[in-house]
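Office hours follow-up: a student asked to see two folded examples consecutively, so here they are.
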Amino acid sequence: MIPSLADRISSMQRALHNVIIPAIAPDNGLAMEQAHLMLAHLGLIAEQADYTELYEAAELVALERLATALAQAAGGGAQTIAAAATLRAELENRGTADAGARRTRTVALSGLVERLVDASGTDGDADFLAVSHDLIIADNRLSSKRDRAWFRSTGFETGDVALPSLATMFTPAQF
């Protein structure tokens, strides 16, 4: 039996905490800082590991929703229309569902959305510019909340902020 990811991370955390950090010279502040940073990152990775594929899937679903809405709403000159057509064609390609294909699709769709937005800055009509602005802002609000929840255990959030836990963030309603 091979050790699980959780067991391997735990082993690295113990090595850092029990052996490596105590062996660092007290006057070597940079090494101590970096060792503690590694320990914190390992804790975050351990917390997120079981949710990574779900996170990436939710990110792709949201991106596909935005890309579809933008491609349908696109209006303007030749550059905007061509960029929208390319985006629609990519949306029709549904590839495999494995993690690598999801990441590749996310990058491809992101680039095509950016291309459409850039083209609309050249020859997009006023209606599309207004609609695309609203769609992108709404999508970014949801994306920001998902990203902030993903890193909530880091303690970067201040004040009375209500963010879902990783365990509750990926319910069917979130997709």
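And the second, which I mentioned at the end of office hours:
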Amino acid sequence: MDEKLRIDKYLWAIRLFKTRSQAADACDKGKVKLHGQNMKASKPVNIGDVYEVRSEARKWVIEVTGFLPKRVAYSEAIKFYKDITPPEALDKVHFEAASFHTGKRLSKVGRPTKRDRRDIDEFLDGGPEEA
């Protein structure tokens, strides 16, 4: 089989990245490596290649076992690669909430809601306010 498949398209198809542009960005930023060398998004994938892939949430070491040109369900996608990530690398990874990086505050944390503010005012004034 003489197929050529770009690394960014392959990483997207096996569901390591949500979009193909995220996979291409990861390649451009040096987060996808083959034998310690950074990979460009346009490089072809070969069966048996072992890639190190880093994202914000996780690090993978995967071995290519087949070509997958289209994005398919996760249960099908896992048949086209072998996850050989060492267990000690899995222990180092810790997940932070996505809202941590956006600058948005978490729900029910921080400033009081309008209802909370009324309850606080009522408590401090010593009872329900009469107009």
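Two things to take away from it. The mean pLDDT is 83. The chain has one domain: 7-125.
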